[in-house]
Design goal:
By secondary structure, the protein is an alpha+beta fold. It has seven helices and five strands, in the order H-H-H-H-E-H-H-E-E-H-E-E.
Amino acid sequence: MLGSKLDIFKLQWLDVVFADRNKAYGAYELRKDNSKTTSSALLIGSVLFVLAVSSPIIIKYLSGFIPETKEKLIETEVVLQPPPPIDESTPPPPPPPEPPRPKVSTIKFPPLVVVPKEEAVEEPPTVEEVKVADPGQKTIEGDPTAEVRIDEPVGEAPKEAAVTEDVNQIFTSVEVLPTFPGGEKAWAKFVGTYKYPPQAVENGVSGRVIVQFVVERDGTLTDIKVVRDPGMGTGDAAVALLKKSPPWKPGVQNGRPVRVAYTQTIALNLEAQ
């Protein structure tokens, strides 16, 4: 029947497949002995698996039949003996002799002997002799016949470089910063005259306008430019305000007024209008 399953591993099918073929080639024998080889491999694998799993139990069971060897410890007893008595009748040995001191060569001065004046060999110098032997500065006349030679100077001595001062230098950090006349309160009052552009008022522009300028040596403001501008003409209004500023107190460096680059922030507050 077509619906029945075919077992292609039966020997009958093997003979059909290898009909009219060389059965001595080896494939026929392998197919023929396949069932025996598979059964043997399965049996051997099962035995090895059981031995591997049960090996700890077997080893534990066999270890009970092996007699345990006990090591004998050799005990030693240490007996402290008292020291031998000291024989007080025998004198102690003498200490070792001191090593010889090193010889140092010295000079011995003869003692001072006071003798009469007439027997003295040397006499102290007199006042007149001391004046003659004066080592101070003296004017000594030279030999008019001697040739006087004056060597010509070689090169010129280095001249001190003239210190030039750049009056147009712009400083970013000085000892005394420039300040608005009247201090912070006067500056706040001056900023209060800031005129908001109509477009900024209509659009509700707020924020900060950051301007940068140079405070000259006479306190006037030059090179005014906007660094940050919220827009709607707020930056141009800040420049117009600073152009109306009175002269500032200039910055000081090394005790003199100098040009200083200065940055100022103007906060926009529409509610104060």
